[in-house]
Amino acid sequence: MMSGTPIQNIPVAARVTPASIYVAPSLAAARDALSEYGAAGAPLAGGTWIMRSPIRHEPLKTHYVAIGRIAELSAIRISGNAVEIGAAVTHAALAAALADLPEFAGLVAAAGRSANPAIRAMATIGGNLSTSDFAAADCVPALLCLDADVEIADRNGRERISLAHFLEVRSKLAAGRIVTRIIVPRAECRTAHIRLPLRRSGDYPVAIVSLSVSVDAANRVRVARIAVGSVEPSARRWPPLEDALLGRPLDAAEAARIAAELTGEFIGRDSVDAPAWYRVSVLPGLVRRAVIAARGS
């Protein structure tokens, strides 16, 4: 068994099981460690979700594999065709790296306005996507409407799947598998990310609408991709609304009107911060704001 460094910043009384950290020097070492630990281990990057496990009355893993020092996982590569984002890239670093690329305005807003500055400096994109119990993750709907793919690795190699498929299987991934990067294709489009928190700072959003749209010379919609987050347990695309907007002028009021007719397909989630019906009811207004933001980008 690999040796580890005891976790010092979690009170003993809060630990459900003994915990250790192995600082992986390479991706290969991380894959080996996670495979060896199996279900008793998990990757650790920013730790913003893991550190609150005791508050949620969730047991800690016996072992964590720290991946923050692996250069490959902290890199952002921008080419003419795609942007490749390492799983350990923080929200703050992602927002800064893409700030000058207009087609990623929505993703920049998602990464640059989530939570608060302290969390954005620590929370990673891989953790944001992998935490299946976190319904209010900002980057998930933003990446969904950009047709992002996720690369997963283990001792046997790497696999690339769509983000939509990853969200369906992430809670059932075999022990030892790890998200290594997110691949986002580049395209001529306008994007926006609109979130509705109950307070201005540091609050999880009640509902999120992310939008990616391209229009023709007459301002008619050629391609529309719309994703909704925080309303249901997991973010997802809104195909009926996407289809309804095709061929129409990109108009905020009309998009909101159509959205109001289609909200019945959502089953909102109840929680202490907002009831289910409210999360669904605000969607048309967020669609309107997203179209306004996209037209202005």
TrEMBL record:
SUPFAM superfamilies cross-referenced by the UniProt entry: CO dehydrogenase flavoprotein C-terminal domain-like, FAD-binding/transporter-associated domain-like
Keywords: FAD, Flavoprotein, Oxidoreductase
Keyword Oxidoreductase: yes
Keyword DNA repair attributed: no
Residue intervals of the FAD-binding PCMH-type domain: 14-189
Highest taxon, organism lineage: Bacteria
SMART domains reported for this sequence: CO_deh_flav_C
Alphabetized InterPro entries for the sequence: CO_DH_flav_C, CO_DH_flav_C_dom_sf, Diverse_Substr_Oxidored, FAD-bd_PCMH, FAD-bd_PCMH-like_sf, FAD-bd_PCMH_sub2, Mopterin_DH_FAD-bd
GO molecular function: FAD binding; oxidoreductase activity
The protein, known as: Carbon-monoxide dehydrogenase medium subunit
Organism, scientific name: Bradyrhizobium macuxiense
